[in-house]
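ingest -> validate -> predict -> emit
validate: passed (alphabet ok, no gaps, 163 aa)
predict: started
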Amino acid sequence: MSTEKKQGKEQTALQLPGQRLAIMAIRRWLLIMDDIVHVIVAIALLGAAIMMILYTILNLRSLELQSILMVINDVLLVLIIMEVLWTVLRYLKRQKFSLNPFLSIGIISSIRRILVIGAQMSIGEMHDLDKVKVLFIELGINTGIILVLIVAYYIYAKAPAQE
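emit:
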């Protein structure tokens, strides 16, 4: 083997560990930055949930149907925020990914929309027949979404855990 080829292989062999160390350092730095961003997101989500609770308490004017429905709507929004927060915290703990929080968020979101539509219809805001038809269609769609997500939740819960 010629001296030049031998030196080239030696240089390549010497560079590889250094390159690996550099790549490992970059990966470690990126993971740290990723964790920092997730911590900031978690703090922002917690702050949003707390502000939403305070907003709900401060805007509870009476015990009328409309006010109570708005409180329920706001509390369900807080639950959605907390489900997202829980997902971020699971990621930070390096726990296994779970589809359950996303299914829960979908179910809660559809329930929120059904409650809002029900509130609009119960206080008589809808006098236009076309708007009422659209709301009934939306109620049906949201009910269908809830049923599909519940079935998905059941199937996911019964599926064997994969490592």
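The chain has one domain: 3-158.
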